[in-house]
Amino acid sequence: KSEGRNGVGVYTPDSGEREEHHRRLARDLRVALDRQEFTLAYQPIVDLPTGRTVKVEALLRWTHPTHGPISPMTFIPLAEANGSIVPLGTWVLNEACASARAWQRAGFDVKVCVNVSVIQFSQPAFVATVLQALATHDLPPHLLELELTEGIVMKNVEGVRATLDDLRAAGVGTAVDDFGTGYSSLAYLRDLPIDTLKIDRSFIKDLVTDEGPSTPAMTLVEAIIRVADVFGMTVVAEGIETEAQRDALRALGVGCGQGYHFARPLPLEGLLASLKLDQPADSTP
Ligand code: C2E
Ligand code: MG
Ligand code: MG
Ligand code: MG
């Protein structure tokens, strides 16, 4: 039944079958790049005071020939486990740089934010791959930001520092993704050249209840903002779904936000249309 057209997630939650399903997906991942089964979706990140799009996060999408769309939460770990994340990650970087260059040509100076897996980041050639992608697509480095997980930041601190230093020197931005869900040591964070903290959406979810803003949740977000301030980092709040959440985050002074309230991840053409709406022709360079 896992071969059927309507087989998306239909397998019973029996762990043996699930394992078999994942084994097949992992095998299929190895050829999926050659078969052009991947695309990127693009989600705006807006400046909260003005509502303007300042960055765009590139999110990988896989349409499996028989199972249909597979969530990155499912296939990224499989791609990490069998090494296919390395060529896949390089493809994402190049595709994202090409898109950002196209936006720039259309008059929109928005950064593209690319998720990077720890396996990719640990490759000796990682920085060279990033620089190559920028050069190939003629993208200025300040229009690229790499999103790293707390796991990366905490691993092998010396090697990580050297890589981050190289990226900083090249002018490429860095962000810690899903901040607050991992085990970041504040001492390490202070010492690393990181530009942005992305507050995980689990903190945003509880921000406003039916009775209004929740004091403990607000206090927690406030504390993260302070940490970012002290370290000279900017903040992006993830997973903003309501106007009330946006207003609360604005009031706290959070710089940027991302979430379904503003826009869902969009195909390339949809993103460009949204940029055009967002920044009318007379205000673009
Ligand atoms: P992430 O980097 O934290 O990306 C944000 C995720 O939250 C995306 O899920 C996005 O669609 C979703 N999201 C955005 N706004 C909202 C909202 O308002 N509410 C809710 N409930 N969700 C929202 P997606 O696209 O399924 O990606 C999941 C994760 O997969 C990403 O989390 C990232 O860790 C990973 N991922 C995606 N693309 C790549 C990639 O190219 N490379 C690597 N290594 N990982 C990727
Ligand atoms: Mg991300
Ligand atoms: Mg995130
Ligand atoms: Mg997240």
What's the gist of this structure?
With 285 residues, the chain is an alpha/beta fold.
Question: Overview of this structure, please?
Answer:
The structure is a single chain. The protein is α/β, with parallel strands linked by helices and 285 residues long. 47% of the residues lie in helices and 20% in strands. The chain contains 12 helices and 11 strands. It has helices spanning 15-32, 72-82, 85-105, 118-121, 126-137, 150-154, 157-170, 186-191, 201-205, 215-230, 243-252, 268-278, and strands at 38-47, 53-64, 68-70, 111-115, 144-148, 173-179, 196-199, 208-209, 212-213, 234-237, 256-257. The strands form 2 sheets. An 8-stranded mixed barrel has the order 1-2-4-5-6-7-10-11, surrounded by 4 helices. The longest helix has 21 residues, at 85-105. It is globular, with a radius of gyration of 19 Å. 35% of the residues are buried. The mean pLDDT is 92. One magnesium ion (MG) binds next to loops. Ligand C2E binds at residues 43, 59-60, 71-73, 76, 92, 115-117, 147, 177-178, 201, 239-241, 258-260, 265.
